[in-house]
């Protein structure tokens, strides 16, 4: 019987005040510090460094026999009564320190907000996830803008202009769209003119529709973002103007009020890496920016500074309290913050097993590099996303063919001789059996929960590993390793592949915790600005559809104080 999963942060933690936020962050830092080896583990070293031995042996022995479905629930805080008490405590404590992520309606934050349904013309080019995000976030931005009396919205990292166009046409807000890509600006402009014609044709009465103004700028710092924002908003007539700015040569006059610039709201949907953090700094430093609505992403791309006494402006940490702490993340751990408990538990068994196999193949490939190409191994090479996509595509084909009797594909042959790969990862025109090749059967037994342990299955896994290796060698430009040598390495690690699933599910359970720390760091930075600034974290999107669903909302208290804001 399953024990009750932890309620994620509800009732246990609060971040209404800076002191409460600091206490929450300290609790997370202490917990992560106790599990540093698991946190720092890297897939490529799994077999080389025997990483499963860094985890409590009783935990691994317990989890190795669990069904895949239960492993996938670990990041969500689900435990079983028969598990070791220390394992249950680890899972439940980790989950209790995570921000609540269940979606809430914008009305629960701002009662007078309205969510406009995006029509087919405005939604053209959007998938279901993007449409959900744009509908919900645009409603939030509109409500915040009206509440604080802002006249213009600046969409930072606007991409193809989906958010900017929703705000312009559905909510009639003047918008400046800033993006680093001139191609994105061109797409935004063309798309906006087409949407404008559609909306104009619908209106019975004459109505002036303005399209977002686009600004192309590669934002490298908060100073750059402040400068281009103030410059673009000098003249608030809503005219369609495309600007290409040499942003590095301008500097903002943050301390001097510019009365030609209207009151602004900074908005961003999944502004990448440091861009989300630069938005926070501009909000704090620019008088004209009255409010901020930001959803971040790509934590792995954040810059990081480990020293509190430097003058740099890293993406992490940003708050004074986090800078003074001793918690260092690094790229691998920040990448872990992108893991989503909702995505893990919604994986199918087949897809989870594929992912575990890819982890095993990559770790075994590192053993090949260590032995036959040590000079390449020392460079910590990246296989690249293209290679990963190719391997997943081929592996998927094999799994599909295994479920259909009598079917074969490019990795499963009726010929008893195994087909070999060219050194560039391509398939030869005819099956061959070169010297050093390992013969094996092509048929596979697949049960749905796990792969069988028969000799046939072991041979099939080696076939997949050899395909993976050939693709990786082609990516790295390395030479060829004979099948016999690959087989020796695969046999040396095969008995430990059963630890892959439990290990990576345990590590994934720490992902939402790292993301919570990064988000609380941003919230605390805003809270450290003093009583004139109010800030909140709010779960705006459906986390199963949009894993980065937490929005940072901040506003400055003036004579016209915002009303109706609810802080978590």
SSE topology:
Blueprint: E1 2-3, H1 18-34, H2 36-40, H3 57-63, H4 68-72, E2 79-80, H5 85-96, H6 128-148, E3 152-156, H7 162-169, E4 175-179, H8 182-202, E5 213-216, H9 222-232, E6 242-244, E7 264-272, H10 274-285, E8 289-297, H11 320-324, H12 331-336, H13 341-345, H14 349-372, H15 374-377, H16 385-402, H17 455-476, H18 483-494, H19 500-508, H20 511-527, E9 533-539, E10 550-556
Parallel strand pairs: 3-4, 3-7, 4-5, 5-6, 7-8
Antiparallel strand pairs: 1-2, 8-10, 9-10
What does this structure look like?
The chain has 568 residues and is α/β, with parallel strands linked by helices. 42% of the residues lie in helices and 9% in strands. The protein has helices spanning 18-34, 36-40, 57-63, 68-72, 85-96, 128-148, 162-169, 182-202, 222-232, 274-285, 320-324, 331-336, 341-345, 349-372, 374-377, 385-402, 455-476, 483-494, 500-508, 511-527; strands at residues 2-3, 79-80, 152-156, 175-179, 213-216, 242-244, 264-272, 289-297, 533-539, 550-556. Strand 5, helix 9 (222-232) and strand 6 form a beta-alpha-beta unit. The radius of gyration is 27 Å and the shape is globular.
Order of helices and strands: EHHHHEHHEHEHEHEEHEHHHHHHHHHHEE
Helix-strand makeup class: alpha/beta
**Residue fraction in strands:** 5-15%
Report Rg: 27 Å
CA distance, first residue to last residue? 33 Å
Give the neighbour order of strands across the main sheet.
Answer: 6-5-4-3-7-8-10-9
Q: Characterize the overall form.
A: globular
The number of strands is 10
How would a crystallographer describe the biggest sheet? 8 strands, mixed
| Portion of residues within helices | 40-55%
Please tell me the overall pLDDT. Answer: 80
Summed up, the helix count is: 20
Taking pLDDT < 50 over at least 5 consecutive residues as the criterion, the unreliable ranges are 1-11, 236-257, 404-448, 450-456, 561-568
């Amino acid at each position: 019987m399953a024990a009750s999963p932890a309620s994620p942060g509800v009732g246990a933690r609060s971040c209404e005040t800076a002191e409460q936020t600091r206490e929450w962050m300290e609790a997370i830092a202490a917990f992560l510090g106790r599990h540093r080896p698991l946190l720092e583990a890297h897939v490529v070293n799994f077999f080389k460094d025997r990483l499963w031995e860094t985890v409590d042996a009783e935990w691994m022995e317990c989890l190795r026999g669990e069904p895949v479905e239960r492993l996938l629930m670990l990041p969500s805080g689900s435990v079983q009564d028969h598990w070791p008490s220390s394992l249950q405590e680890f899972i439940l404590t980790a989950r209790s320190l995570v921000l609540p992520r269940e979606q809430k309606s914008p009305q629960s934050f701002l009662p007078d907000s309205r969510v406009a349904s995006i029509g087919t013309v405005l939604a053209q080019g959007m998938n279901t996830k993007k449409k959900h995000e744009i509908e919900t976030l645009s409603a939030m931005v509109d409500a915040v803008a009206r509440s604080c009396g802002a006249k213009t919205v600046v969409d930072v990292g606007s991409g193809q202009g989906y958010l900017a166009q929703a705000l312009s046409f559905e909510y009639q807000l003047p918008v400046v769209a800033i993006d680093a890509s001139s191609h994105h600006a061109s797409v935004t402009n063309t798309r906006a003119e087409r949407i404008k014609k559609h909306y104009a044709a619908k209106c019975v009465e004459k109505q002036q529709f303005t399209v977002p103004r686009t600004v192309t700028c590669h934002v490298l710092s908060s100073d750059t973002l402040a400068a281009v924002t103030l410059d673009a908003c000098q003249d608030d007539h809503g005219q369609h103007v495309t600007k290409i700015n040499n942003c590095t040569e301008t500097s903002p006059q943050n301390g001097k009020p510019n009365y030609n610039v209207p009151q602004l709201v900074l908005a961003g949907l999944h502004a990448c890496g440091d861009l989300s953090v630069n938005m926070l700094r501009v909000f704090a430093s620019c008088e004209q920016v009255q409010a901020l609505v930001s959803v971040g992403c790509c934590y792995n791309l954040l810059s990081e500074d480990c020293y509190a006494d430097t003058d740099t402006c890293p993406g992490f940490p940003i708050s004074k309290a986090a800078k003074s702490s001793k918690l260092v993340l690094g790229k691998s751990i920040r990448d872990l913050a992108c893991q989503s408990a909702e995505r893990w538990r919604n994986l199918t068994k087949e897809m989870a097993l594929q992912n575990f196999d890819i982890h095993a193949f990559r770790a075994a490939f590192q053993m090949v590099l260590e032995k036959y190409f040590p000079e390449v191994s020392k460079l910590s090479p990246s296989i690249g996303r293209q290679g990963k996509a190719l391997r997943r595509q081929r592996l998927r084909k094999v799994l599909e063919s295994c479920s259909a009797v009598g079917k074969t594909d490019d990795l499963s042959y009726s010929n008893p001789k195994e087909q070999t790969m060219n050194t560039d990862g391509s398939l030869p025109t005819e099956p061959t059996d070169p010297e050093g090749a390992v013969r094996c059967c092509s048929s596979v037994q697949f049960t749905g929960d796990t792969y069988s342990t028969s000799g046939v299955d072991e041979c099939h896994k080696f076939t997949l590993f050899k395909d993976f290796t050939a693709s990786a060698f082609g990516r790295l430009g390395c030479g060829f390793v004979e099948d016999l040598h690959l087989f020796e390495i695969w046999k040396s690690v095969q008995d430990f592949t059963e630890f892959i699933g439990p290990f990576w599910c345990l590590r994934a359970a720490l992902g939402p915790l790292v993301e919570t720390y990064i988000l609380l760091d941003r919230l605390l930075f805003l809270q450290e600005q003093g009583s004139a600034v109010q800030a909140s974290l709010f779960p705006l999107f459906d986390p199963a559809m949009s894993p980065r669903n937490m929005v940072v909302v901040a506003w400055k208290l003036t004579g016209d104080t915002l009303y109706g804001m609810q802080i978590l």
